[in-house]
Amino acid sequence: VSSPGTLSFRCLERADFATLARWLAAPHVARWWRHPATLEFVEREYGPHVDGDPSTEAYVVELDGHSIGLIQRYRHRDHPDWEQAVAIADAAGIDYLIGEVDHTGRGIGSAAIGLFASDTLATYPEIRLVCAVTQQDNMASRKALGKAGFELFRFVERIDSGDPSDEGPSFVYVLRRPPTS
Ligand SMILES: CC(C)(COP(=O)(O)OP(=O)(O)OC[C@H]1O[C@@H](n2cnc3c(N)ncnc32)[C@H](O)[C@@H]1OP(=O)(O)O)[C@@H](O)C(=O)NCCC(=O)NCCS
């Protein structure tokens, strides 16, 4: 996957929390990530992971060394309610956002998703696939997943996760582990 610049991921730190709150407030993100765009929310949601809880790994996406977004992953088995809601075992889920709107629509999201998904398969040898759930109407996300090699797996009328970001009809996309030769 080509992208305009060099992409890298680094662990989210507490020093990123104000930037993350700003990204969550950006209209193009808030439409799909329906969380309070406050420092309090970010601390409650990400503080434990920054402090060492490994059940979700959160990374800042950097383009040429500049922070432009967030990408995170979690094994479904570490989140049994989510595993049951999505009904896919032996998988890791990913979520992502490009917070700086000027950097959307330029191939960066799909490149980041592709790189991160490959790294996730390598990091968790026990998983069969990487899974992403996106709202039916989120065309940028659906297109970016397709460009990153994901395939449409299932339509879901609603996901009972309790998270407002999951309300409404969604599509589950998966990237399968390539067969070993
Ligand atoms: C989803 C997101 C990460 C994708 O990143 P990106 O850098 O914008 O994605 P890309 O540029 O690689 O690909 C997006 C594609 O969707 C297209 N697209 C964007 N908006 C679209 C729309 N409303 N309808 C149809 N296609 C659309 C773009 O043109 C592009 O396709 P192209 O390369 O063929 O032109 C980014 O848009 C984002 O952060 N959105 C807000 C947060 C979000 O929705 N996160 C996902 C929640 S599941």
Give a description of the structure:
- The mean pLDDT is 94.
- α1 packs across α3 and α5 crosses α6.
- With 181 residues, the chain is an alpha+beta fold.
- It is built from six helices and seven strands; from the N terminus they run βαααββαβαβαββ.
- The structure holds coenzyme A.
Question: Mean pLDDT, nearest integer?
Answer: 94
Bound molecules: coenzyme A
Poorly predicted runs of 5 or more residues: none
Secondary-structure element string: EHHHEEHEHEHEE
Kindly estimate the percentage of residues that lie in beta strands according to DSSP: 25-35%
The helix tally amounts to: 6
Form type: globular
Number of strands: 7
Question: What does the largest sheet look like?
Answer: 7 strands, mixed
Determine the fraction of residues in helical runs and give it as a percent range: 25-40%
Helix/sheet category: alpha+beta
Task: From the alpha carbons, calculate the radius of gyration and give it in angstroms.
Answer: 15 Å
> In whole angstroms, how far apart are the ends?
22 Å
User: For the largest beta sheet, what order do the strands appear in spatially?
Assistant: 1-2-3-4-5-7-6
